[in-house]
Amino acid sequence: MAEPATSAPRRREHTRERLLDAALDVFADQGFGRSTVEQICGGAGFTRGAFYSNFTSLDELFLAMWERQSALMLARFRGALSQDAEAPGSGGNTPSSLPAAVARILSAIPVEDRWYRITAEFSAHALRNPELTKVIAARERAIRETMLPIVEAALARFGRRVEEPELLGRALVAMHDGTTVQALMEPRENTFRTELFVRLVYCYSTEVKE
Questions:
Q1: In this predicted structure, what is the pLDDT of residue 85?
Q2: Which of 27, 56, 23, 53 is CA-nearest to residue 41?
Q3: Any idea what the CATH number is for the domain that residue 191 is in?
Q4: What's the pTM value of the predicted model, to 2 decimals?
């Protein structure tokens, strides 16, 4: 009996996901620069052939991992913001408070030690490769362009308008990256992030006068 036509694509996707999961562990434990294809294949339970049928290099694998992590982050981000609109009595338009929304977003997108270590090392690696730097910059820009309309719509529910979206997007990324390091270094003092993000969005938005 012939296998269903979808079985091969599903197996390929399953193999790819296992390789990405194994790479996350290897990169975090060994460091990107010291990780090898063999280590990742060993962690996933596959041969080198399985790796090279899905990725051409460790750089390509990392970029796929980054895309997966970004999609997860955006889903959590949207989910955290949607809770206000869906709250009982909100009518879909009136959220509880801006600080509460910011706190909920930061809770949904927690600081992750392993992921930070991986991205910090890969960023240093990419900065030595101009073509790779361009790829990373383009993907970071795509993330900002995806997030900004969501942020603007959320702030509009609080009666605020963003005057310079591009600057707000860059400021949010800079705030996230900088406070991530601080929160990891001083884990007991990470409650400051909510206050800083609230002040940031107030600085880059204005109250809509009726």
A1: 56
A2: 23
A3: 1.10.357
A4: 0.84
